[in-house]
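User: Can you help me understand a structure? I only have the sequence.
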Amino acid sequence: MPVVVVTDSSSRLPDPLAARYGIRQVPLHLGIDGTDYLEGVDDIPADIVTTPGVSTSGANPHELAAAYEEALAASDGDGVVAVHMSRRLSGTWGAARIAAEQFSGQVRVVDSRSVGLAVGFTAIGAAQAGAAGADRDRVYEAAIRQAATVDSMLCVQQLENLRQSGRISAASKMLGSALSIKPILHMADGLLTLKERHRTFSKAVAKMVDATVESAAGRPVVLGVQHSAAPDAAAELAGQLRERLGVVTSELIVDLGPILGCHVGPGALGVALGTHLDPIEQ
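Assistant: Let's start by predicting it. Here is the structure, written out as tokens:
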């Protein structure tokens, strides 16, 4: 059996696509009013993104160890590669390292240095390598390469959610604090950092499209568009990118979901770009 890839629900991979590649997703936690919800498992209120007092947390070592044990059994001993969101944004990676210690090197843990579909693309790249016959160490190396090459940007309507959650650097907080400033955020070294700032959200999105085209540099790409409760805007953004990019080998449009949505607020739009990823079979 191929090496099995495990990730977490921050990857935003639709269930049918994850199943197509044999990727297992461990749910993250969201809490409000004493109730703990598992993302992708429990029925989470639709208005949770705009509800005050919501807390989020990563998967714990016990949950991850259980997922790794099942994945290892499914691999018939070939091993597991676990791809998780940036260690600088969540405690999940640290919990994963603790959980992996139980498996005598049969589970290798990757810091994707990102969040959202960039994590998903990294997991898919690892799964593609496994399906092609790569052993555990080569699947791990494939995941590391993907994590280093997937580009990810995000435009948010306002920064308050990110400020409250502490998921944005101090410099970005300061630079984006002026009234009506709409930032383009970029994943760099595992953190959300300020790339540009603009007076209007539409201008920020237009500049994000320009930056995506520049990053693609004419290469065939796998395109991911992600949004927080803004499906129509996401579809429009995907259309703009298809017109501007050279060859789009595969395309995904996904909702960021309740946990990431609580951190970025409603209306956010983002792009994940895989320039070294094989076409995704859907």
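Now, to help you interpret it: Residues 4-148 form a domain with the Rossmann fold fold (CATH 3.40.50.10170). The first strand starts at residue 4 and ends at 8. Let me know which part you'd like to focus on.
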